[in-house]
Design brief:
six-stranded mixed β-sheet; alpha/beta; 270 residues; two-stranded antiparallel sheet; 8 helices
């Protein structure tokens, strides 16, 4: 097999299986090459990924080691995403009243979701976790992509218990926006007690839903080790949760004067 074809196949297999470890023997046997040739191929693949700003190859030595692709996104591409999102969200026709914006089309747009997921996957790549967790519904697409990029199972917390999920645990919580009581539930067989979770959501105002997620995971002694949110409202300033990473911050929605101000969060850059 010619070297350029081999590198193309190597790149495709690694990027199609993010955060999944492959032994050097797997590739040496597959392509009939020595470890020295594989090392040179990996170096070239790493250069391609670096120039494209789409991640890196990580090599781990030892008996349990291997080669795996760590997804990521360049600072330039992340900044471009932020500006594209700000432009799309600043359309006055998105105002829904009560300080809310229509975001469903954005949260289910594959191109936006891909780059937002790469931001979170890149920032949380070194965070030990067993699950990616979200609450239905608009955050599911983003959380599912983050889960794929981190090679972790996705757990979806429901607003209402479903018979098809078997035995569940439910809690009541105060929503951050209107301070009224809402409910969420999780199937008992969906998680293992004592695990760790990365929480991903589409929007946060006061943090009531995210606190509810942490509380219901706490019923299983599951620690929330990282939280990523696509959009966070500046007000109220005091949230029910802390330690979260937003991509954009909604500074102001003035319905009377038709003003929407959104800022980019510089903390997403590595």
């Amino acid at each position: 097999m010619k070297k350029n074809k081999r590198i193309g196949m190597l790149l495709d297999e690694l990027t199609s299986n993010p955060n999944r470890s492959f032994s050097s023997k797997h590739f040496c046997d597959k392509y009939g090459i020595a470890k020295s040739s594989l090392s040179e191929d990996i170096r070239l693949v790493n250069e391609i990924l670096g120039e494209n700003g789409s991640g890196r190859i990580q090599s781990v030595s030892g008996a349990g080691g291997g080669i795996k692709y760590i997804p990521g996104i360049s600072n330039e591409r992340a900044a471009a995403l932020q500006q594209d999102l700000i432009e799309a969200l600043s359309d006055k026709s998105r105002m829904l009243g009560g300080g809310f914006l229509y975001t469903s089309d954005i949260m289910f747009d594959g191109h936006f979701v891909e780059d937002m997921a790469r931001i979170f996957a890149g920032r949380f790549a070194e965070t030990p976790a067993d699950y990616v967790v979200t609450v239905e519904t608009k955050g599911i697409a983003l959380a599912a992509r983050v889960a794929f990029l981190l090679d972790l199972p996705l757990v979806v917390i429901r607003r209402e218990a479903r018979y098809s999920e078997g035995s569940t645990v439910s809690i009541n919580y105060f929503s951050g926006a209107a301070e009224h009581i809402q409910k969420m539930s999780i199937a008992k067989r969906a998680v293992e007690p004592g695990s760790k979770a990365i929480v991903i959501d589409d929007f946060m105002r006061g943090g009531g839903s995210l606190k509810g997620i942490r509380d219901i995971l706490g019923e299983f002694d599951i620690m929330t080790v990282a939280t990523g949110v696509a959009l966070v409202a500046r007000e109220p300033e005091r949230k029910k949760v802390s330690d979260y990473l937003p991509i954009l911050i909604i500074e102001e929605i003035d319905e009377e004067n038709g003003i929407i101000r959104i800022s980019a969060n510089p903390e997403i850059f590595l």
